[in-house]
Amino acid sequence: MVLAMESLNRLLHCWILLISLLFVVNGQFPTTLEGPFKPVTVPVNYSIIGQVTSLPVNDNPPLSPEIEFQPQQISLSLSSDLSSVWVSWITGEYQIGDDIEPLDPQSVASVVQYGVYKSGRNNLATGSSFIYSQQYPNEDPNNYTSGIIHRVLVTGLDPDTMYEYQCGDPSIPAMSEVHYFRTMPSPPKDYPSRVAVVGGLGLTYNTSTTISHMAANHPDLALLVGDLSFADLYCTNGTLCDFQNFSFPQSSLQETYQPRWDHWGRFMQILTATVPTMVIEGDHEIEKQADDLTFTAYNYRFAFPSDESGSTLYYSFNAGGIHFVMLGAYVPYDKSSDQYKWLERDLFNVNRSVTPWLVAAWHPPWYSTYKDHYREAECMRVEMEELLYKHGVDIVFNGHVNAYERSNRVYNYTLDPCGPVHITVGSGGNEMNLTLEHADEPGNCPDPSNTPDRFMGGSCGFNFTSGPAAGNFCWNEQPEYSAYRESSFGYGILEVKNQTHALWMWYRNQDRYSVGTDGIYIVRQPDRCPS
């Protein structure tokens, strides 16, 4: 059965690649060399707009373990070393309240048994384990303590190789089912064939469609650009809260329903146990505690290649011939900050002959034309855009806005053939429905003074000084730097073909998983543009 499934997966993968090649031959995808393109706004399909419905996880928890200490919420992530992969999972159940006895992390071993596919799982790696707590003020009786979180670094792996593995404690015995993953290829000529990108997932029926479609397209790597479980939208009693300032660090009370993270981790295992998944924080991951701790669940539940950066909130890694830079919008980013200084060093050390492609990702977009969150990250853009441009970043991925948008190549709000393509993919499912209104529509432009950086402080809002929008904070039509925008649930896939060409495709949930809606070849020009 396993062999048959593997053969079927390879056949489907080859079929998808064949379709892509046919598109290339038939010239159905434009390239950025043909741009800039006239802005396109896809009319809203109101048949998909309605009440967002959460999955009924409280009544029927997805993939709840059947035996005590059986591994759950299994996930893979890349390390800073091409030959290593992190394996993470949770054993035991979370506990609610103060009058509890936390699980002992030392009571269950952290073991991964692995080997090359079909050659036996004869190798063994061990790691560490821990728990975390989410504490609330005013003696809230619903304080949360997690199950045991396990983290193992599997080393000595060969590039572009299929492995099989089990994780757990073989002495109980309590081991997971057998899972499979493929390591990243070697740079500089090889690339992960398909990189899935999505943000704003949540745990809704839309999320289910997004993840099932994404898995059917067989990505080798997944990027989640923030707003993951939306646990902070739920009060400590598990009901959906009815307040708007849930994720402000300044809030005196940060209610969040941490079991939502466990439900989300169990559901996401259909992807994360087989596809290395890299995450970056969004505002819904802040989850301020009574003692002013933030990002606790985010920091404990995911493994990061953060040795060089010293932070889980910003880091970088390689995947074949692509260097990814993951930036933090909710940690200091000014030129005197640790993050900025690390970014300078990281970009300076990128060898474009080894990793020709340079991709950056963070949560709030700089070039979104939607009314919600319009120019909200302007301070971050002012501080960091020049540095990214100088080092020749090719593509930027963002979330935050519950819609899809792709820019023309742009720098400092000006069309620039050497600027990156900015892509917002923030509508993976979320819990708050789609964003529909645009800032350039009559009556929708916010006052610049009402767009401060809510998390880092300060305001960088200003009116444009040149171009068609000179003297105004918003355009009165879709800006020329916005190439394509659409309010639909979905995700995207990046396929890097070689050192200069990468195919980007946007997939909507209302279509078949194999049907893309917005496709373009992003073309690097290393002889023309700085790097």
Provide a descriptive summary of the structure in words.
By secondary structure, this protein is an alpha+beta fold. It has one domain (33-70, 190-523): Metallo-dependent phosphatases (Purple Acid Phosphatase, chain A, domain 2). The protein is 15% helix and 24% strand. The chain contains six helices and 28 strands. It has helices spanning 2-26, 205-216, 259-272, 296-301, 338-348, 378-390; strands at 40-41, 72-78, 85-91, 95-96, 111-116, 123-126, 128-130, 133-134, 144-145, 148-154, 162-169, 174-175, 179-182, 195-198, 221-224, 277-279, 315-319, 322-326, 357-361, 395-398, 404-407, 410-411, 414-415, 421-425, 482-486, 490-496, 501-508, 518-523. The protein has an eight-stranded mixed sheet with strand order 1-25-21-24-20-19-18-17, with no helix packed on it. β17 and β18 form a beta hairpin. The chain starts with a helix and ends in an 8-residue tail after the last strand. Mean pLDDT is 89; it is low at 1-26 and 244-252.
